[in-house]
Design a protein that fits this description.
Blueprint (H helix, E strand, L loop, with lengths): L1 E4 L6 E4 L3 E3 L2 E3 L5 H6 L8 E7 L4 E7 L6 E7 L1 E8 L10 E7 L5 E4 L3 E7 L4 E7 L8 E3 L22 H4 L12
Antiparallel strand pairs: 1-2, 2-10, 3-4, 5-12, 6-11, 6-13, 7-10, 7-12, 8-9, 8-11
């Protein structure tokens, strides 16, 4: 397993070692020992699974307080996955990273606490799985506007409008959210 830094300290791109033959493939999607080698001592308390059609944009979500770290991956289809640094004390505050995660490339992304997270599905029937290191708390969930011009995420929409939930349609700008200290 290769654990690679991204352009913003915190999020990590994980490329598992895939063993394949004419029967299929096998890989470790999570290894506490491998993460520990990279300085991450993470215990997960919740597994989530969403399925979406092409063009669905979910996010940018975060919890504050009771923040969550998330290990995300795609098992069917593909997404453009985004993490935005919302730690006011960070020199990267308001900066974002975006990576393609797919069933084909088998990559995972670690999104630590202090980041808003979201994704755009690139294919129909995309199954997105994520492990969380803290429980979901509806009272502490917030949505950062996916299209906040002060952040300027370059979503690969190809001229289309994303399919959004009411919650995601009414996200707040970076200036409006209760960011982390």
């Amino acid at each position: 397993m290769k654990i690679l830094p991204t352009s913003i300290p915190g999020p990590l791109l994980i490329e598992p070692r895939v063993f394949g033959d004419d029967r299929g493939f096998f890989f470790e999607a999570w290894s506490a020992a491998e993460f520990a080698v990279s300085g991450l001592d993470v215990s997960f308390v919740q597994d989530n699974h969403s399925r979406s059609q092409k063009g669905v944009l979910r996010g940018l979500h975060f919890q504050n307080p009771k923040s969550q770290g998330k290990l995300v991956r795609v098992v069917s289809g593909a997404v453009y996955d985004v993490a935005v640094d919302i730690r006011r004390s960070s020199p990267y505050f308001g900066k974002w990273i975006g990576v393609e995660l797919s069933a084909e490339n088998k990559r995972l992304l670690w999104v630590p606490k202090g980041f808003a997270h979201g994704f755009l599905t690139l294919e129909d029937q995309t199954d997105f799985l994520y492990k969380c290191d803290a429980a979901y708390s509806a009272d502490n969930e917030h949505t950062l506007a996916w299209d906040d011009p002060s952040i300027g995420i370059d979503w690969p929409l190809q001229g289309a409008q994303p399919l959004l939930s009411n919650k995601d349609r009414s996200g707040k700008t970076l200036a409006e959210i209760e960011a982390f200290a």
